[in-house]
User: Fold these one by one.
Assistant:
Number 1:
Amino acid sequence: MLRIAIKMLFGDGARFYGILLGLAFASLLIAQQSSIFVGLMSRTSAFIRDTPQADIWVTDPDLLSVDDAKALRDTDLQRVRGVPGVAWAVPLFKGLLGVKLGDGRRTVCEVVGIDDATLIGGPHSMLEGQVADLRRADAVIVDNRRLARELRMDTGERGPDGKPVYRPMRVGDEMELNEKRAVVVGICDNGESFQYAPQVYTTYSRALQFQPAVRRVMSMVLVKAEPGRDPGELAREIEARTGLSALPASPFEWKTIGFWMRETGIPINFGIAIALGFFVGVAIAGQMFYNFTLENLKYFGAMKAMGASSWLLLRMVALQGVVAGAIGLGLGLGLASAFGLSNNPDRLAFVMTWHIPVITAGAVLVIVVGASLISMIRVIRLDPKSVFQG
Amino acid sequence: MSAVSTTFAIEATGVTKAYGKGENRVVALAGADLRVPYGELVMLVGPSGCGKTTLISILAGLLTRDGGSCSVLGLDPQALRNGPRTAWRGRNVGFVFQQFNLVPTVTAQENVAIPLLIQGVPRAQAMSRALDMLRKVGLGGRERSLPLQMSGGQQQRVAIARALAPNPRLLVCDEPTSALDGATGQSVMELISRVAHEDGHAVVVITHDERIYRFANRIVHMDDGRVTRAEVPPKEHA
């Protein structure tokens, strides 16, 4: 009988495709919007992932996210280094500074100053040059993400429209950071960031030269735990001994993500889109599935008269719901994945973690189970005598 | 303990049934009596609302009565609990509906196999039996057709094959010719009549169609919830 149930579903072309369309559209909206949301939120903590050398990030206790600017005192570095279990601790500067390009155009860069001695905190993936090249005079490493858009150089030529022709910045090019000369010695490949400003790496001491003179400049301290020492436990020890905030990388990522989720309307906006997808699914697919069952009530009634138990009929309705749900979900997730793959990852923040298909499947399950349950009530209450009522 | 009749498929006496309560109470059956022997085709006739559908619903175990006694195929369906009664109905009662109620998206053969599949008969066996039944009703070669690819008469033949597939001893037909033209209706009734007489089924047919009266062994008239009279139809009526 379950095969009959499937044939009943597939055979009712218009309704079946309507149900599929509703479920696929709902799945697409839920998965796509969730993936973009996760992608965006993931970008807010990209800098932490791009600095994998550190076990623990020590910051001002009031720091809200990795992009927040609440500098530490220079002496805090020594206090952290004094905590038992710390293998090494290095300073890190992170701040927005003005840049003047070779043709006189100005923009803003996020300058990252890393420990002069160890170069810990530098980019982990280099496209050209090496991190060690930062030891050369006035050296900086630029991130390739913004080379074509922000850090581009005037070639001196004019295009057919009379406008200047630009090229991406490359090794050997020069620029000014707060009126001080900087020479590009390498190009790194960082992950997409939530910040629009291009990242420029240099040494910590040189970053202080670029930075206008202020009393506190050290943004954070990167810490490595001694081998065998639990980073979480060490972080708590650092907090207890220094009064600073110390978080392992993952909790620091979540703190940053949490800040953006709390302080911006992003979750609400995406939440509305995701809820819209869910309600579209309920409105279209749920309603059409319910109508499909109603349309089949006379056949279910005939089957009941012919000896089918309510349990058998419920299994048939449930199977129809599950099959329609599975196909609709597969179509929706496939379309969402195709959407993600077909877009430039530099432009579109799209990260489909394993949670998203699971959550989308859960939402589709709620839609089809809800519609099936309502339909099942009609089937259970179905009076087999009704088949005699023409 | 009452003796089980081997002559009568149906013995109903003083059956009563009312719907609703208080001011909304409507009496559908006010003491209906009916006897149907095996191998006989009985037609229930009467105005709309006289209780015909309620009576066959009670006899087929689709509805419970308020009063009276009822023996169908040797037992009182109402004495069975819901599950066993449904199973009993599936094994012993075949239904032919006014609007055929064939599942439009499955083939004629699968439609006929449905009551067997409901009973848990293996698919191959059910399909084989369905094919035999289709041949019996003159639809050999149409087993792969969908209902909508068939004429009304052919669809009703498929419905008859479906009703007979589990080899029920009681066949209940609700207005089996009302959706068919005259000639097709006659042909369908010939089939039902042949089934009753050849295979010894008891057949109860509800109808308003006087053109098919000649196929009945007896015509039972109902009015206001009671059987008012029974007659043997004039064979020259057709």
Number 2:
Amino acid sequence: MSTPQPPMPQTAAPNWQAAPGSSYPSYTSPIPVVRTHLGHALASEWTKIRSVRSTMWTLGVFVLLVVGIGLSVAALIAGNASEGSLSKENPLSFGFFGLLLGSMCIITLGVLTTASEYGTGMIRTTVTACPSRGRVLVAKSIVFFAVAFVVTLGSALLVALADVSMLDAREPSGQEWLKGTLGISLYMALLGLLSLVVGSIIRHSAGAITIMIGVLLAPLVIALFMFSESLQDLQQALFEYSIPNQLSVFYSQSLSNSGPSGWDPLWIMLGVTAAAFAGAYALLEKRDV
Amino acid sequence: MSRFSVGGMIELEGLTKRYGEKVAVNNLTFTVRPGIVTGFLGPNGAGKSTTMRMILGLDHPTAGQVRIDGKRYDQLKDPLTYIGALLEAKAWHGGRSAFNHLLCLAQSNGIATRRVREVLETVGLTAVAKKKTKGFSMGMGQRLGIAGALLGDPRILMFDEPVNGLDPEGIHWIRNLMKSLAAQGRTVFVSSHLMSEMALTADHLVVIGQGRLLADTSMADFIERNSRSYVRIRTPQRELLLDVLHTTGITAVEAGDEALEVDGSKAEQIGELAARHGVVLHELSPQQASLEEAFMQLTAESVEYHAHADALPSEQQELRRQQQQWGSEWRRS
């Protein structure tokens, strides 16, 4: 009979005597021991963010939205505007619509950077490899912020150049150039960073994305339905401090004349993100993973 | 705490973890030593995984402490080259390839990329290194987890239920791997709920039940103490036989189902006695209690999820039911 024997234990006599008594032979690894630091965590997080498809998808859709809508709006306006009607306009401001929609992609990627680790169980591997949890959060933040900033800046710059060349509008000032490209990109990257931090607090992708979309849209939508006279001040504040309006401030075309102006939105977002970051940091140290 | 200069000791002292009312780990004190495979045995829900998570600093203990060569896990500057762990299966992002998963781990501890290829080779996943891990079978997932544990060539290795989902060939492989790692002088700490598995691999045994320490003994001692041999006897003339045995100084106990049991290997002696006194025997069989039975006896009091609770007195049943409810709540949260 040639039935294959299952490779089952033939260990009839396990070698119990192998256990050493009091002298412990210690193992020494040939692998050099390295004191880990933030640089290692950064390299690790960079590998993580570039090696999952969701990064490519969210950023791909983001570029498509920002550049696609930006160029379409520019072409549409260039084709339909009557002679001289745009002469007082800041041409960069037409990049606003694409970025407003694109912000959803940045939010999604930000949340996924942290929350997806909880969904998959990866977080336990991550924290085992780097027990300094704060370092993990800092590394994730730096890598994500850099990626989001560079991609937004590239897209916004492309749309800005197209707007200036295609539209028969006035020449934007240096300050307007700075706000419409660098400023808006920093703002978008911060919005994404806030999402990352919220993802770390909520530890659930869908939940955190819902919260962030709510933060993005709810103030504006709620304000729309505040018909009562007594709520007018609140309505005004909700309009002015809603994220879409803060975005438009970078193109100096706020929905109202009061409220944040100049570089204010950037400082507001910086403050909110810093506070959320501190909370996430404390929670991360305290909670079990 | 540690007075030993050698590396690779895991020391638990009064380690306790509470989840609300439920005590998952209750005042555990024991030491895991290098050079041997230490089996960590307990029924499902006994607190094995929670204990391992606390060793790795993933869960914070409610009380007590755990030290690795005198340090808390989060004080280790080179965690992966010090201690490697296989926790639960599939603790990674399914969209990432096996290679990239190990690469990001390696980078976080400054381990060379070359080492990633080495461990993939060791666990036999080289062919699927570039494939997304979400398509991996349970056995492949287990191998990837083991690759992650071996990545830093650490002096301490912890495996939580490593044979789960492995085929016989894989089980054989992991057994030999653990033994050879221990033979190199490393500390190997492996959990299981199967006594038979531990009997084949472990040199030392730590048994817990409902979070409490039930035994901390060498495997040889455990076997010696627990593999009780006895003789099972059935006879239609039980009063006569009992008298005969009594006069010879042999104690027989009732074993239910009309049978008697006598401790030790006295089958021949009893057979001869019965023949001499003309006692009819229907059965005279030498028996050996298995390690599995010994383990079940040891943990019987503390098994959390009984398959049949109907044999228990009602008071105890009520208690069990409560415990089960706590357990399920804890799982859900």
